[in-house]
What we know:
The protein folds into two domains: about 5-230, Rossmann fold (3-Layer(aba) Sandwich); about 245-465, P-loop containing nucleotide triphosphate hydrolases (Rossmann fold, 3-Layer(aba) Sandwich), CATH 3.40.50.300. The protein is built from 14 helices and 24 strands. The protein has helices spanning about 10-15, 35-50, 65-75, 85-95, 110-125, 135-140, 145-160, 175-180, 250-255, 275-290, 305-315, 335-345, 360-365, 370-385, and strands at about 5, 20, 25-30, 55-60, 80-85, 125-130, 165-170, 185-190, 200-205, 215-220, 225-230, 245, 260, 265-270, 295-300, 325, 350-355, 390-395, 415-425, 430-440, 445-455, 455-460, 465, 475. The longest helix has 17 residues, at about 370-385. The protein is elongated and about 95 Å long.
Amino acid sequence: MHTNLCSTGISGLDDILRGGLPRNRFYLVEGHPGAGKTTLALQYLLEGAKSGERGLYITLSETQEELVEVATSHGWDLDTIATFELSAAEQQQANPLPNTVFYASEVELAHTMQVILQEVEKIKPSRIVFDSLSELRLLAQDPLRYRRQMLALKHYFAGRKCTVFLLDDKTANIDHHVQSIAHGVISLDQVSPDYGITRRRLEITKLRGVNFRAGKHDYTIQTGGLEVFPRLIAAEHANDFDRSAVSSGVPALDTLLGGGLDRGTSTIIMGPSGTGKSNIAARFAVAAAERGENVASFIFDETIETYVGRAAGLGMNMRTPNISMRQVDPAELSPGEFVAMLRQKVEQANTKLLIIDSLNGYLNAMTEERMLMLQLHELLTYLNKQGVVTILTLAQIGMLGIATRSPVDLTYLGDAVLLLRFFEHGGALKKALSVVKKRTGAHEETIRELSFSGSKISVGEPLRAFKGILTGTPAFMGNAGPNRLDGHEGEGDGSTTQPG
């Protein structure tokens, strides 16, 4: 394990690297144009300057003016690091005629490297950036000559206590030689969906001697630089917590759930649009706030004003200090950024109950459904290990009966599943509620009527006098007793009357 590490200046990237990069090594940073290579390199140099390390940025592809513009856009001052524009140095040494422009392809590689190394000897930097290898490759013209020069460059810096970043553009022809001689490779990738922001991902494809976090990690480029969101690994986060059940504040609903929802579990509330999924989730949120616990609600499908107003109509005050609400736009948010938001609420705000309303919106935030399954499984496992009560709503397609279906089957991920259904009776559309699954204990296996009347949520007695409720058109058992569906008392003559 390395103890002599240098920070990259990006906390998320340092987390992926388990503290930073080993010093005095050769690193390749590759990515397509616009991926943020220059921004990452500047953050790396500025971080070194904070601790008194000399930094040198050698630019072959950009002018010094362009480099300053990039820094200014992030609010950075480059006075603490040295910058060296090769084209300007070449013009000065060659003493060209006025208005003469020397392009990289016109300059011999050996002379170019001599100019660069003279500047290195002059500055004696601890951190150095070459931007970019594409120009050096163009100068070399011959692949063998280019590879020899890269190897010579590595040997030159080996004994000079200098950590080197080589920036390179990704092309169709991957330069495996530079990847092989580099101590580590940081790869920046970006994908432009048909709608929404560009999704950017970072991957450490190679780092010798370091047990880094493998895989792809989301990142964004904001004013102030790159922000990297390490991929969540639930196994690294485990806490002891009170495994008691929490109440909804509605006794009949708690009875249906076998005493309430257990801490450290996830519950999926599923049903067609309009059945009251969000209202039930809000009821648990208000009950938790009344106990003095912190609640976080992430709302995908409606505005906070609509959400709060509907809850207020049912006697629930969501505008309390203990309840944090955030409206999420899936088109403007990467999955990794969303997970980071949830982690911040749990680890820094001590959130005990967390709501995602709805999973349909979360699904739209993902580029691939398969990725949703994997990341959601890891997220729920993490929340469970933190002792958080997690409630997720899932809107189903269809309105009545067996025609109702889910856009994707996520019920296996939930520790408990509440099923809401519409059913028709007496010319009116009513709602039914049942618990179809609870891993952590017993629950009531009945179907109850759910209503939102006056200023409260009401859960009625079990609907024992009906059968076929979940089909949407139940049959009323004429003179049946209260336990007719249990096959005990009041079996009657078996006649049924269709609700009217």
